[in-house]
């Protein structure tokens, strides 16, 4: 499997066993049409009425032509050129992949931020847990402007605000789309009132969010054909309407749009035009769910031409019969009889398409939440993978419920009021501008695109985004305040969580202990031991794996010591014998404490990426100063295949200097469960093979005795899982009179908010365990 070829325990033959059948480009494009472009595809339901209100005067033919021209060029410049052609090239890339361009990618504003500040060095997915050397970063010594503290914080806030806007859009999109589609029924059934429309809309939303558990793959296979039919209906009705007034093709002349705004003396109508491009950000945010090739094929071959035909057709109908069309431009422009067979067919597929439109923003929200959970900017909510063929297709139960509550609240609060569409457009306009800024930064700082090209991109698209934003700001008193409130609340929460998690990570890194800070030995060497051997044995507590080669295979753990010099072997042998350099001692404030061995087989879990022994290990020694016979420092990592065979999950190596200490990487496919119940036997087998394989010093009798002790210890397995109890340590600002109120606010945020939420969503919540084998070690974290 590309992406695992360079892994420490993988060979080419193993790769072949995990080669997955990839979904064909055409099939993926159909699914992308259903999952991503439903939002963009349902915009014709309400755009022209957003520009020309139903309660207003009928527009002139020139105004209709200008408005349609603005719509056509907005769709061309923003969704097509900015997102489909340019932005899709800026997804995250897996540098471990054999073919980087075919590796799974992620999109969206937070993915752009992640590219600016890569946190993990190459290969970190497959290397052992680090306990002896600092982790490296490609930016540790960088002189880039964006690496300055103020710049980095500012860019992070921009990314989090953008995420907040997308998530608020994820709440508003289902509400706007479903209410607009259901409201069309009132054209054929005038007796239908606002309460009926709200009730039907809520029922549809509940069904939609309830179906999320079945996964994007299943929903996409159903939604794809539905949306294809919808786009065919849009194109067909558009062509029929264009035939009544072919002069509408003059809308391809951009000067018509310019003249329209000149006549209006304002850019306010752009807030209505903006509704035509809502959903375009989903094409980029959903890059983790589909390939960029499938997204491009779907948009260019299907979505783009169908939308142009639909808007041109509606414009033609509005020019020919403005009086009878204006009350509901979309449904009144359906050819043939209102309430006839074609009309109800379009209405039905309109309902289905709006359900799909809601799906686009729901899946985008899931993708963003997954990114933020991984980077520590969101609580560690459960993320379930729903597809064996694509890792990016996921379901998040808790966010799904919160989105449902938000959508229902918006529908109940606004009903069929036009303020709902005003609220909808504001989020998109600001998001467009923030994405342009982040793309420009990535162009210059990550992709090494010439600055003149990046600045030209910023100026051109920044100007367009600025126009849209300026027009939508005017809608704040008319409903956009809802979006603003939602986005600000979400952004503040994300910023708060990122800050608190950063404080916890700083504490974690500062309080991790290397083994030479935990252990020492009494200085009693055998007569004749050279100074070099004494120094080597004493300083062996830098603790490194016996074998540091990067290419060893999982079936070759029985390795010789040919790669270790005779002097190192002799030093290691001296260091391993307690009788030769004295007893193992635990470093304590009152002096070293003798450290007896306890006959048990213990796993100490790494939950972070910091350097040093796991907190669970040092905490256990502080509370109970005995050393388990076998200590396994365990880190769990997910790799880019859905399932791993059992024999390929375990990667074990031994630490020198202290007998019985091992490091282990437990690797899982992204759809595998973290099951700790039966871990002991496979790990025991690998340790025994390692001890007997001639790789480590010692006579046959010594090795047999050691193996017997290890096997006896394996009868009592224990997993030590750490958990933080966060407290606020206060601040030391110079203005003494501010300390007390600020300390109270800080304590409330960290202890009452962050700690309580974090305790309800621990990183180990999804583990399958035998509680009789689990010891949870509390760590007091004053941050």
UniProtKB/TrEMBL annotation:
InterPro entries: K+_transporter, K_trans_C, K_trans_N. The chain crosses the membrane at residues 23-47, 67-88, 149-167, 187-210, 222-244, 297-320, 340-362, 394-416, 422-444, 451-469, 481-500. Keywords: Ion transport, Membrane, Potassium, Potassium transport, Transmembrane, Transmembrane helix, Transport. The keyword Ion transport applies. GO terms for cellular component: membrane. Residues 612-730 form the K+ potassium transporter C-terminal domain. It is a multi-pass membrane protein. GO terms for molecular function: potassium ion transmembrane transporter activity. It is found in: Membrane. Residues 29-519 form the K+ potassium transporter integral membrane domain. PANTHER family: K+ POTASSIUM TRANSPORTER, OSMOTIC STRESS POTASSIUM TRANSPORTER. This is Potassium transporter.
């Amino acid at each position: 499997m590309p992406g695992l070829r360079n892994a420490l325990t993988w060979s080419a033959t193993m790769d072949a066993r995990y080669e997955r059948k990839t979904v064909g480009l055409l099939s993926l494009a159909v699914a992308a049409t259903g999952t991503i472009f439903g939002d963009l595809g349902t915009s014709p339901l309400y755009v022209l009425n957003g520009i020309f209100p139903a309660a207003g005067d009928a527009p002139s033919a020139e105004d209709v032509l200008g408005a349609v021209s603005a719509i056509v060029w907005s769709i061309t410049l923003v969704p097509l050129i900015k997102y489909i052609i340019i932005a899709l090239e800026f997804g995250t890339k897996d540098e471990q992949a054999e073919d980087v361009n075919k590796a799974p990618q992620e999109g969206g504003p937070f993915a752009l931020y992640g590219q600016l500040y890569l946190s993990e060095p190459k290969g970190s997915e497959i290397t052992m847990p680090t306990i002896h050397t600092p982790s490296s970063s490609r930016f540790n010594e960088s002189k880039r402007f964006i690496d300055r503290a103020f710049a980095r914080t500012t860019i992070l806030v921009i990314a989090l605000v953008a995420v907040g806007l997308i998530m608020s859009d994820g709440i508003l999109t289902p509400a706007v789309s479903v209410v607009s589609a259901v409201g069309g029924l009132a054209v054929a059934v005038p007796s239908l009132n606002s309460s009926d429309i709200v009730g039907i809309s809520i029922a549809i939303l509940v069904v939609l969010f309830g179906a999320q558990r079945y996964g994007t793959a299943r929903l996409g296979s159903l939604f794809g054909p539905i949306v294809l039919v919808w786009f065919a209906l849009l194109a067909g009705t558009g062509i029929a309407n264009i035939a009544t007034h072919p002069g509408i093709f003059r809308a391809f002349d951009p000067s018509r749009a310019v003249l329209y705004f000149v006549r209006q003396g304002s850019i306010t109508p752009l807030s209505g035009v903006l509704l035509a491009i809502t959903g375009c950000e989903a094409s980029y945010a959903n890059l983790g769910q589909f390939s960029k090739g499938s997204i491009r094929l779907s948009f260019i071959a299907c979505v783009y031409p169908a939308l142009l035909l639909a808007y041109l057709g509606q414009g033609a109908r509005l020019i020919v019969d403005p009086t009878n069309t204006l009350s509901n431009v979309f449904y009144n422009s359906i050819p043939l009889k209102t309430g006839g067979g074609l009309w109800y067919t379009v209405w039905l597929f309109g309902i289905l398409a709006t359900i799909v439109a809601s799906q686009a923003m729901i899946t985008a929200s899931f993708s963003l939440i997954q990114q933020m959970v991984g980077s520590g900017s969101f609580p560690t909510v459960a993320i379930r993978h729903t597809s064996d063929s694509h890792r990016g297709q996921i379901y998040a139960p808790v966010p799904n419920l919160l989105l449902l509550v938000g959508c229902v609240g918006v529908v109940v609060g606004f009903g069929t009021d036009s303020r709902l569409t005003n609220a909808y457009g504001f989020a998109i306009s600001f998001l467009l501008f923030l994405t342009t800024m982040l793309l420009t930064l990535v162009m210059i700082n990550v992709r090494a695109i010439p600055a003149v090209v990046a600045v030209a991109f910023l100026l051109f698209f920044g100007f367009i985004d600025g126009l849209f934003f300026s027009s939508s700001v005017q809608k704040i008193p008319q409903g956009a305040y809802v979006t603003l409130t939602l986005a600000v609340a979400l952004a503040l929460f994300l910023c708060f969580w990122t800050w608190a998690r950063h404080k916890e990570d700083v504490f974690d890194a500062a309080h991790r202990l290397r083994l030479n800070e935990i252990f020492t030995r009494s200085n009693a060497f055998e007569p004749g031991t050279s100074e070099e051997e004494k120094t080597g044995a004493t300083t062996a507590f830098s603790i490194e794996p016996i074998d540091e080669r990067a290419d060893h295979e999982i079936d070759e753990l029985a390795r010789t010591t040919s790669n270790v010099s005779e002097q190192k072997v002799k030093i290691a042998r001296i260091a391993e014998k307690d009788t030769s350099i004295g007893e193992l001692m635990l470093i304590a404030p009152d002096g070293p404490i003798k450290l007896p061995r306890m006959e048990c087989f213990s796993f100490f879990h790494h939950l972070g990426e910091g350097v040093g022994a796991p907190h669970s290990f040092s905490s256990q020694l502080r509370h109970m100063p005995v050393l388990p016979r076998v200590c396994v420092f365990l880190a769990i990592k997910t790799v880019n295949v859905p399932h791993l065979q059992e024999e390929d999950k375990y990667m074990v190596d031994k630490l020198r200097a202290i007998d019985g200490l091992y490091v282990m990487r437990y690797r899982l496919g992204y759809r595998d469960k973290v099951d700790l119940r039966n871990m002991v036997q496979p790990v025991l087998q690998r340790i025994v093979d390692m001890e007997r394989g001639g790789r480590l010093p010692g006579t046959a009798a010594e090795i047999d005795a050691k193996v017997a002790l290890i096997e006896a210890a394996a009868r009592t397995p224990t997993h030590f899982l750490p958990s933080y109890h966060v407290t606020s340590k206060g601040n030391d600002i110079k203005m003494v009179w501010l300390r007390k109120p600020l300390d109270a606010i800080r304590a409330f945020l960290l202890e009452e908010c962050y700690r309580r939420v974090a305790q309800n969503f621990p990183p180990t919540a999804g583990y399958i365990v035998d509680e009789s084998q689990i010891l949870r070690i509390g760590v007091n974290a004053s941050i």
